[in-house]
Amino acid sequence: MTESIPIVVDGATLTVAGDISLAAALLNAGIVGFRLDEHGKPRAPVCGMGTCFECRVTVDGVTGVRACLEPVRREMRVETGR
Amino acid sequence: MTPDAIVVGGGLVGAMTALALTEAGADVTLLEASFPGGGSSGAAMGHVVVMDDSPAQFALCAYSRARWQDLADSLPASGEYDGCGTLWIAATEDELGGAVERASQYWAAGVAAEMINSQDLQALEPELRPGLAGGLLVPGDGVCYPPAVARAISARAASRGARVQPGSVVQSVEANAVRLQDGTVLYAGAIVIAAGVASPYLAPGLPIIPRKGHLVISDRAPGFVRHQLVELGYLHSAHTFAGASVAFNVQPRRNGQMLVGSSRELVGTDPSINRTLVATMLSRAVEFVPRLGELRALRTWTGFRPATPDKLPLIGPWPAIPGVWIAAGHEGLGITMATGTADLIVAGISNTAPPIDPAPYRPDRGMPSIDLIAA
């Protein structure tokens, strides 16, 4: 059984499985609005394999990180909705 | 009297031709193998530019761009037309000298163009590297999102009475007849082949070969560049036929994304990405716009320009098959020239006065053999 770890999403601490992608962690937590398009509408992951770029979030200050390719890490700070 | 017509190919050239024929009173059917704008139009950069590689190229560009002015105002927002102008960049004093010659040709033809010195170039485009010699600004040029424009124009043709049939794969074209892959045969007084790189399969002997290109689109960075930027060396690096070449060409899109080109290769119709060539292409762009390298590339794709040996499109009747007309072979200028091509086809089919001399674009004109060039 994988250890659960804390991550910080938009200022709130979530406890997530420690061996999954950030995209999976966010979706498991019911977060579907990963980023905003140019018209301000929320976008969610489509492909889950790094091709569609719809799941971009900010991780530890780095913008444009594809959540589907990013493993979760203890205490990582994630910002959605950019 | 305009006969009924079938247009084969729903790229922007075919869609615009179908619309113009419909507006001229013809009963039009537009056949598209996939969906409007799904081929070369969908892969294209979407520039509406006046190029002057030859007097005939200049004439059709200038006429077509003037027609684009009205068209642009009528497009839906999805067409993303942006009259950002083209800024041709001179890296050296030699290139700047060449730009003066070009500018005088533009002025003589009534096309607005402005010489830009080194300091003003920096002010116009602060992201360009220092030390460039200057440039030539062509303010009437623009950019659009071609698949959306092709879709809007085919929808407009349909709303005015044309039958638009996506998913119709044409197997062969005969005298006044088109045979579909499903066995259906359609008849018309005029058949216009506007199938881009696929056109020679329908009209054997048509001198068109696919010239592959790569494009990269970046993340949004609004205001990063303001004009379409092209190196003046483009004409030289982009117009050699043998071997691959790259040239610096960056467009700002309306949503702040940057579209980066360009590459040219003769490698058949293999759509796979040539990473070495993309790296060369991006390095060339970064030489001109250093901080472009800090932007994230979101997507890379390829497309095929329908190229001809003499760099002019094929517009007019195809004598080998009675009743057949060609509107193809525009290479990288199909988006620009779609409007003028449509008008030339309408004038030819309806036997009315053409807006410009159509002779330089006749599909059966003399030109070097495509086989020699492709070899």
> Which structural class best describes the helix and strand composition of chain B?
alpha/beta
Order of helices and strands of chain B: EHEHEHEHEHEEHEEEEEHEEHEEHEEEHH
Characterize the quaternary organization of these chains.
Answer: heterodimer
Rg of chain B, nearest Å: 20 Å
The portion of residues forming beta strands of chain B comes to 25-35%
Mean pLDDT of chain B: 94
The percent range for strand residues of chain A is: 25-35%
**What structural category characterises the helix and strand content of chain A?**
mainly beta
**Strand line-up of the largest beta sheet of chain B:** 5-6-4-14-15-16-13-17
Radius of gyration of chain A, rounded? 12 Å
Question: Could you tell me how far the N terminus lies from the C terminus of chain B, measured between alpha carbons in angstroms?
Answer: 44 Å
Summarize the helix and strand pattern of chain A as letters.
EEHEEEEE
Shape of chain B: globular
Percent of residues in helices of chain A = under 10%
Q: Which sheet architecture does the biggest sheet of chain A show?
A: 5 strands, mixed
Number of strands of chain B: 19
Number of helices of chain B: 11
Largest Cβ-defined interface:
A-B, 3 and 7 residues
**Secondary structure tally: strands of chain A:** 7
- How many helices of chain A? The count is 1
